[in-house]
Design brief:
mainly alpha; 0% strand
């Protein structure tokens, strides 16, 4: 049994017309890829700006509260702190939650 390979391509090197066609097709595909990448970049930019604007709008009340909040170390005219919450005192300790049903039981 003999194997025969049939080739549908010519063994001649491609001609000038085929090379020119390949260059044109390559340029067209590169232009198409560039166009889609520009559209994708514009779409990502629009999505990013929309997300930033949404977060900016939703956090406007929080930013207003932060502007009205006194900075750390702010003191009144007499040298005392304006509020106990801003006194800077840290009390370290341990908290234990006791249920009302366990309050009268000794262990």
């Amino acid at each position: 049994m003999q194997n025969k390979f049939i080739s549908y391509t010519s063994t001649r090197p491609p001609g000038r017309l085929r090379k020119a066609g390949a260059v044109v097709v390559t340029a067209a595909l590169a232009g198409l890829a560039l166009m889609f990448s520009a559209v994708l970049l514009a779409l990502l930019l629009v999505i990013g700006v929309t997300a930033w604007a949404y977060l900016w709008w939703k956090t406007r009340a929080l930013r207003k509260q932060m502007r009205n909040f006194p900075p750390p170390g702010a003191q009144a005219e007499n040298g005392a702190f304006k509020d106990e919450a801003h006194s800077g005192v840290v009390i370290e300790g341990e908290a234990v939650r006791v249920h009302e049903s366990d309050a009268g039981v000794k262990r």
